[in-house]
Write a structure and sequence with these properties.
About 55% of the residues lie in helices and about 0% in strands. The protein starts with 16 loop residues before the first helix and ends in a 7-residue tail after the last helix. It is globular, with a radius of gyration of 16 Å. The C terminus is likely disordered. It has four helices and no strands. It has a domain of about 70 residues. The longest helix has 26 residues. By secondary structure, the protein is mostly helical.
Length: about 100
């Protein structure tokens, strides 16, 4: 199924190709399930690749399969939610960079 759906679509400078693939998988009618134990640990550092890219563009690629076939009101809701999240991320980033606000 991985190959049939095109696998990971790597775009230089962007991340979340695994999430995009999972979106395509679910949107094509397959189910995902939860494994109730940790199978691996993912290290997410402040300066890691997934944090350096453009938040909005990286996450837009995750919801792209749903945008293509969803009704207009669902597309508007998805894009509005993504815009709000991007705004919050930018505000958090600005606060972390501020000299008056200590970084944890």
């Amino acid at each position: 199924m991985f190959q049939k759906l095109g696998g990971f679509r790597e775009i230089p400078g962007f991340s979340l190709e695994d999430w995009e693939f999972l979106g395509r998988l679910v949107h094509s009618g397959h189910d995902l399930d939860v494994v109730p134990q940790s199978l691996f640990y993912y290290r997410h550092l402040p300066h890691s690749f997934s944090r350096r890219g453009a938040f909005h563009t990286n996450h837009l690629r995750v919801i792209r399969p749903m945008l293509k076939t969803s009704p207009p009101w669902v597309r508007r809701a998805l894009l509005a939610g993504l815009a709000l999240k991007a705004r919050a991320e930018r505000a958090n980033y600005s606060r972390r960079k501020s000299p008056s606000c200590p970084t944890v």
